[in-house]
Amino acid sequence: VQLVESGGGLVQPGGSLRLSCAASGFRITWYVMSWYRQAPGKERELVATISSVGGSTNYADSVKGRFTISRDNAKNTVYLQMNSLKPEDTAVYLCNAQRFDIYYWGQGTQVTVSS
After folding, report:
1. End-to-end Cα distance, the chain
2. What is the pLDDT of residues 61-88, one digit of tens each?
3. Rounded CA gap, 32 and 24, in Å?
4. How far is CA 109 from CA 15, 90, 97, in A?
5. Nearest residue to 113 via CA among 90, 91, 81, 79
6. d(Cα 90, Cα 28) in Å, to the nearest integer?
7. What percent of the residues of the chain are helix, what percent strand, and what percent coil, each to the nearest 5?
């Protein structure tokens, strides 16, 4: 079982990035999928969640209107489109899959927003 994030990098304020989380060893179809982030010296923060059925989404107030989470069950992949990035969005972004009491985590991808 593995979750592999990609798409992070260095971007200027106001720029965009698209993160991907590819799952292997299980199918994400029945899992709630989420993106978290953790900045140095700060607690891990839930950024966005997408449900397993219906695809309803929820976002942290700090990213509403700027970030969009989506899922492609056929590709077994979850995405996070990040627009209008701010320096305070700098963090390691981690993918999470949850179903009942089963949780899987990826290793994370670094996003740095700086001029």
Report:
1. 37
2. 999 999 999 999 999 999 999 999 999 9
3. 15
4. 17, 11, 16
5. 90
6. 27
7. 5, 55, 40
- How far apart (Å, rounded) are the C-alpha atoms in residues 38 and 54? 28
Look up residue 28 and give its DSSP letter.
G
Residue positions counted in the chain: 115
Give the residue among 93, 79, 64 at the shortest CA–CA distance from 22: 79
Reply yes or no on whether the pLDDT at 96 is more than 90.
Answer: yes
**What's at 45, amino acid-wise?**
E
Which amino acid type is present at position 6?
S
Encoded tokens for 83: 């627009």
